[in-house]
Each structure stands twice: as structure tokens, then as C-alpha cells.
Amino acid sequence: MDDLELERAHFRGVLRAWSDYLQHAISVNSRRRASLASLPHAHQQILAETVQISSPVSGASGFRAKLDEIDDRIRRNADVLEQVAQFTRSFVGLLGEDDDDEQEQAADSPNKSPAEGDQDRVRTVLRQIARDWSSEGYEERRSAYQPLIDAVDARVSEGGSVLVPGAGLGRLAFEFALKGYRAQGNEFSYYMLLPSHFILNNTSRVREHTIYPYIHSASNWVSTEDMLRPVHFPDVLPTMLSPNADFSMVAGEFVEVYAKDCEHNEWDAVATCFFIDTAKNLLRYLEVINRVLRVGGVWANVGPLLWHFEHDSDSIELSLEEVMELLPRFGFEIEERRTLERQQYTGSGGMLAHLYMPEFWVCRKTREIEMAPAV
Ligand SMILES: C[S@@+](CC[C@H](N)C(=O)[O-])C[C@H]1O[C@@H](n2cnc3c(N)ncnc32)[C@H](O)[C@@H]1O
């Protein structure tokens, strides 16, 4: 397969995962229904009487109503995903007419079980929308994005350029654009690119869309209401950007896109958030960050070191101390560094919280370095 074919396959795979979501999520909830039906009748009766929820959708009450309400919310999530898919089908012109036939064939073979990993990514996207584009995500954005924004504000004048690699759904890059910088987000996953394209280019009012990101796990909820709660997005209107704003999202793998000659010395600042640990080889990321910055340019970073490829081959995992020792070797001089407050990443509330203590640093590029040739 050539690069374009690989790209198309990736895109088609994401659209397939998108459309499989409904069937997969409903089947998970059906297992709960089967569990309820397998209980002694007396226990079913107790659950019907004690679980205080009624379902306007089905007219049921008690535990059965809870399952009906989950199904209802799965359908609503699927509707939003479908809108995203419809809007983005022509995205970067990757699909041809034969793709419509293929999608129809896929819909005709409902017995094929969707890959769990792909469905996990779809569920993650729903939570990522809450982090980046809803008022629910305000606290996470304040903890993670604000230090980066402040660091750039203190060092780069308005109109300067900021690159955000691993931009996810684009909110941080958007915030830089809102402040008058030339801002560019870079992202390689269509799971992220599709919804960000949709939010940035197809929303016309605040809280226009509603999703239910927390219905996929029934564990650790204090109340069923918490699990069923809606998340409205976007919390701000992307069209509030001035028509003169210079904001873009670039699809592609960070090293492939930004090691190119045309990107050399192009940027005044690079802001990375929960990104550098996506590297198999962090040294290559450091080379490229150095390369895109002009001398005197600023790199601000926030994140833990949750090495994404730790269990794959060819991955190098480093401790924070080891990473810090690398920075001068790659032409960076540290200006500021601290451990940030404990924070969640796409946290959902409830009785379980994964807390990160991300490290924040700001450094300057002091000199050019050579990129090591590939082996
Ligand atoms: C943990 S998420 C962080 C997203 C966002 N910065 C945030 O803080 O919410 C890491 C993002 O980097 C993207 N990513 C990982 N490796 C990448 C690469 N080599 N090039 C471009 N994007 C990449 C992933 O798809 C994912 O969206």
C-alpha cells in the first residue's frame, strides 16, 4: 500500500468504528439486561422498587428504566457521531465512490464484531470533547492549558506564531489564535481530526450539541444521574475568532510534517500538552522541536511521562530527570520549571480519579542542532 492508500484505510477504519459504535454500545447494555433477567424474581422486584429512576423514553421505572435511559443516550451519542461523519466524509478528499459501497456492505454484515480497541477510541473521543469544548472541561483546561498560555504570553508578542503538536481536538491552539497569535494545531489521528473539524467548522451556536460521555462504564458512580448527565458543546463559538485570525489544523505525523525544510525556523513558540510521551523516540521529537523554532524561540511543555508505546517494540522510556538532562544537548535552556497541581485527564467525576502531577517547563532554543540521520 502506498501512503495515500494507508491514509484512506486509516480514515475508512475510523468511519467504520464510528458507525459500529451504536451496535457495540447497545450490545454491552443488553448484557446488563440479560443479567437483570437472570436474577431471582424477588431480586428483580426489589431493584424495580428501590432504584429511583423512571424512563420517560420507555415508561419503565426502577433498574430497568436505568438501562432504557442508557440505551437512549447511546442512540443520541450515535446521532452526533453520525453528524460528525456526514460532515467530514469529504474530508481531505480521501474517499471515493467505492467507499459508499463498502460502507453499505459493512452495514449489511452486522455479525462482524467491532474491534474493542477502536470502540475504546470512540468512547475516548466523547470524553475528549468534554475536556476541550465543554464547560465541564474548564478545570482541566485551566490546570493544563493556562500555564502554557501564560508562558507564551510572557515571552512572545502578539502576532507571533505558536505551534501545538498533538493538538487533540484543537482547543489549546484555538485559544492561542483567540489571543492574536498565528496558531497551528497538528494532529495525526482521524479520531481527533474528524470531531475537531466538525466543531471548528460546523457549529453555529454555543451548546448546540449534546453528548453523554459517561454512560459507557457503570462503575464508581455516586448517583445514576452523574453517569447519565449530558455534556453540551461547544462552550464557546469557534466563529468568534476574528476573520483576520490565522488559525489552522494540520493533519499528519509530527516528525513527518515538521522536519521538512519549509518548517525550519518557522515558529516563535511550540506548546506541547500531554504530548511528548507519545514519542517512541523522544530524541527525535526534541530535534524537530528545535528545528521548527527560530533561535530564541520558546518551547513550553505540560505533561506526565505516560509512554504510549511502552509495551511496543522500538520504544524508549525515560524518567523526568533523564528528559531534563537531554534538553541542553538538544539546544534548549530552561527558563522556568515546576510540578503542576494534581489534575485529571478526561476525568468523569465519581469515586475513581486518575490524578497526574504533570511537569511544566519553558525553555529557549539557544542554538541549532543537527538531526541524526535515520538508521
Ligand atoms: C494525550 S493526547 C493530548 C491532546 C491534547 N494536547 C490535550 O492536552 O488534550 C495526545 C495527542 O497527540 C496525538 N499524537 C500522538 N502522536 C502524534 C504524532 N506523532 N503526530 C501528531 N499527533 C500525534 C494523539 O493522536 C493525541 O490526540
From TrEMBL:
Protein origin, superkingdom: Eukaryota
EC number: 2.1.1.22
InterPro entries xref list: CARME, SAM-dependent_MTases_sf
SMART domains per record: N2227
UniProt keyword terms in alphabetical order: Methyltransferase, S-adenosyl-L-methionine, Transferase
Region feature Disordered, mapped onto this chain: 98-120
Pfam families named among the record's database cross-references: CARME
Transmembrane segments: none
Keyword flag Transcription: no
MF terms in GO: carnosine N-methyltransferase activity
GO-annotated biological processes: methylation
Similarity comment: Belongs to the carnosine N-methyltransferase family.
The protein's name in its UniProt record: carnosine N-methyltransferase
Native species: Malassezia cuniculi
